Amino acid sequence: MARPSAPGVTGAAAPARAAPARVGGWLALALAIIVLDQLTKVYFNTSFQYGERVNVLPVFDFTLMYNRGAAFSFLASEEGWQRWLFTGLGCVAAVVITIILRRTHGQPRFSLALTLILGGAIGNVIDRVVYGHVVDFLLFYWDDSYFPAFNLADVGITCGAILLVLDELLRGRKAKTQA
Question: Has 154 been annotated as catalytic?
């Protein structure tokens, strides 16, 4: 439902004034992702010993792992500078995504994708600042093959990235059918 514009505001100025209200819902969802991510990390960080595993399914365990690097432990073996590099990249991404969300109107799939990425990025930035590493606790495997452990922030980032690709594919398909 469209919000009424402020008295005396007409034309192009009205959508700009409504933008903060529209972005507020997306930011609230990102905050919910951050809170859920941090609560699960605190639980696993306080309830598990490092490396401890609890089997849940034949292909899935809860475990406590720390990742000083990025996805798939990229740069994890470095001396520590990567902590600040990935913290900075996460902060820049959060600012850019927030700006894009403010400018995105009528694109809920695109906005949802950005929101998932935003919540995940900030969740992992908090870990890097507070702990010096990212707390991971979800471990999938098959026989002796393992997918690197990850967390809910990573799930948000991954789902957001997949949704971005899907959004672009569907937009491209729609543009072709309209041409």
Answer: yes
